[in-house]
Specification:
single chain; 315 residues; seven-stranded antiparallel sheet; seven-stranded mixed sheet; 14 strands
Length: 315
């Protein structure tokens, strides 16, 4: 029997949740599991699922409904508590720095957003308690996700900045690019380094995500990781997710000056939106990126909406 990998990724995410809700999620038909991108738990509210731009709900028999009807499964406070402990690997203290940042990255690459009550001291968040909701973003490796981009842009002669709204498939494409470039599938082999600050891109280097022959730096801030890669790994391509800070822009410039091509992602729903963001402008001003790729909306993850060749007109 052929394994539905997309459904298996959903199952891995569901298993991190407390048993009572996890057992319900497992009953969802595989065909529907494949479409689901997020699992959202809110205290006292129905378990919600994100599929493209739709919000769905689940019944105790695994049936999917389109409104928070009375028969939808409700998340209780104890469900949040047990799920939170499980996601933290039953060591909440060891995850404090991530919790303070607002999300945890699991070993399977799933990102879990957290809402609760922040304790603030001298303008800095020192702790988050009384967790009231969590959003599990399902991590998937989709071989072939970057095929269209490779066919249109490779061989490359400059960096690529991939822009799109949340949930549009930026990280999925970035994973596949790293895999393809590092093993030479549909393009020549290039020495590739992944700077994986949150462990989401590579699955935390735990073997959950196949990164091909790429060197993977996990936990390094991008500004440090890029410099470290240049000094010690002689990469031809450096891949990183969600760049945007001044420190990122400075490191990207140094990486480019050292001869590496940078492939990175940034949040923006269109080229116009990208150009209205001061941090994005700083990234483009580094000269690191020859091409900007705009991805479509979450209803069709991974779809290329537009390719802009900088200083060469639009394509």
């Amino acid at each position: 029997m052929e394994v539905n990998k997309d459904a298996e990724y959903f199952n891995e995410a569901a298993k991190m949740i407390c048993g009572e809700i996890s057992s319900v999620l497992m009953k969802i038909p595989d065909s529907r599991k494949s479409e689901i991108q997020e699992i959202r738990l809110r205290c006292g509210r129905p378990v919600a699922l994100t599929s493209g731009t739709e919000t769905l709900f689940v019944c105790s028999d695994g049936g999917i409904i389109y409104s928070p009807a009375p028969r939808a499964v409700i998340t209780g406070k104890h469900h949040i508590f047990e799920s939170f402990k499980s996601i933290c690997g039953y060591s909440v203290y060891s995850k404090q720095s991530e919790i303070i940042s607002g999300f945890i990255t699991a070993e399977n690459g799933c990102r879990i957003g957290i809402c609760g009550t922040a304790s603030v001291k001298a303008g800095e968040i020192t702790a988050v308690t009384d967790i009231t909701s969590m959003n599990i973003r399902i991590s998937r490796q989709v071989f072939g996700a970057a095929d269209k981009m490779i066919s249109r842009l490779f061989p490359i002669s400059g960096g690529i900045l991939i822009a799109g709204p949340p949930g549009c498939g930026k990280t999925t494409i970035l994973r596949d690019l790293a895999y393809n470039i590092s093993i030479g599938k549909s393009t020549k082999i290039m020495r590739t380094c992944i700077i994986d600050e949150r462990g989401e891109l590579s699955g935390g280097n735990k073997g959950k995500i196949d990164t091909g022959l790429a060197d993977v730096q996990v936990g390094y801030p991008k500004s440090h990781g890029i410099i470290q890669a240049i000094r010690a790994l002689s990469p031809q391509v450096i891949i990183c997710d969600e760049v945007g800070t001044d420190e990122d822009a400075s490191a990207v410039a140094k990486g480019t000056n050292a001869g590496a091509y940078i492939i990175a992602t940034v949040h923006a729903g269109s080229y116009e939106e990208l150009m209205h963001r001061s941090q994005a402008k700083k990234l483009l001003e580094t000269g690191a990126f020859q091409t900007v790729v705009i991805l479509g909306k979450p209803d069709k993850p991974g779809r290329i909406e537009e390719i802009i060749k900088l200083n060469q007109g639009n394509n």
